[in-house]
Write a structure and sequence with these properties.
single chain; 286 residues; alpha/beta; TIM Barrel; 8-stranded parallel β-barrel; 13 helices; 50% helix; globular
């Protein structure tokens, strides 16, 4: 049986465009799988903001991130990409971090070059470490030889300039990573420059609704040279709007009796969270 990392690599090779919705908890991962996706990206921002209630500013620890990744793998057959943030230390630390994510059931992993505590890629005020330190961490990921698909992410576009970000991505490509991710380009022209400078590589486009990067369709991104497309906060943003609406009605009227179209019904919810499987097991072992 192929490892999850190999399955993910073959999935990428089999598709011109691969879309990874962002997931952050068991419910979101089940809904993404129900929608027919084969893969998803665990959003570090989504995990921090939904589970802890704090902005993605380095509040979430490695153990919290890892334990959440393990839970998502346990309740889904999706090929998941972990967000390993900055690696939570130096290159030696990263060697053990990547092995832990592989054991947790991940298929892929992303590591970035921000200074810790890091910030969400579309926030202001980011800083990056010396490029050599980041490359050492990437080398440690490769040396761990877990078979995970590895995405190298640089935030140097905002912290320094686009030329520096491209140079860092090129150096990461020379190490042999699987995908390159220049975070938060601010125009189609910048996307074109990235693709032109990094030909024949799998390039990641991060489509954050209302973020810094233009929101383009998959065919538009493919034409530019980006074939691994991540929509990290689509689920969290849409869930937030839906809950805001429902709680506003509840605060005003005390009930959603006349607004049931805003909700899934009790039986549907049970199906999504695996209640039939629990009932079948209960009946089998009674």
């Amino acid at each position: 049986m192929l490892s999850k990392g190999r399955q993910f690599k073959e999935l990428i090779q089999s598709k011109e465009i691969l879309i990874q919705p962002g997931v952050y908890d068991g419910y979101s991962v089940r809904l993404v799988e129900q929608a027919g996706f084969r893969t998803a990206a665990i959003s570090g921002a989504g995990v921090s903001e939904s589970r802890m209630g704090w902005a993605d500013r380095g509040v979430m620890t490695f153990e919290e991130n890892l334990n959440n990744a393990r839970r998502l793998a346990d309740c889904s057959d999706l090929l998941l990409r972990a967000d390993a943030d900055t690696g939570y230390g130096n290159a030696m630390t990263v060697h053990f971090v990547v092995r832990a994510f592989e054991k947790a059931g991940m298929a892929a992993l992303m590591i970035e070059d921000q200074v810790w505590p890091k910030r969400c890629g579309h926030m202001a005020g980011k800083q990056v470490v010396d490029g050599r330190d980041w490359l050492a961490k990437l080398q440690a990921v490769i040396d761990a030889d877990t078979g995970l698909h590895v995405t190298a992410r640089t935030d140097a576009r905002a912290a320094v300039d686009l030329d520096e970000a491209i140079e860092r991505a090129r150096a990461a490509a020379d190490l042999g990573v699987d995908a390159l991710f220049v975070e938060a380009p601010e125009s189609i022209v910048e996307l074109e420059q990235i693709a032109a400078a990094l030909p024949d590589h799998t390039l990641v486009a991060n489509m954050v609704e209302t973020g810094k990067t233009p929101l383009l369709t998959p065919p538009e991104l493919h034409d530019l040279g980006f074939d691994l497309i991540v929509s990290p906060l689509t689920g969290l943003f849409s869930a937030t709007r839906a809950m805001e609406s429902a709680f506003a009605v509840l605060a005003e009227r005390g009930t959603l009796r006349d607004e049931l179209d805003q909700l899934v019904d009790f039986e549907t919810f049970g199906d999504i969270v695996g209640l039939p499987a629990h009932e079948a097991a209960d009946e089998r072992y009674r």
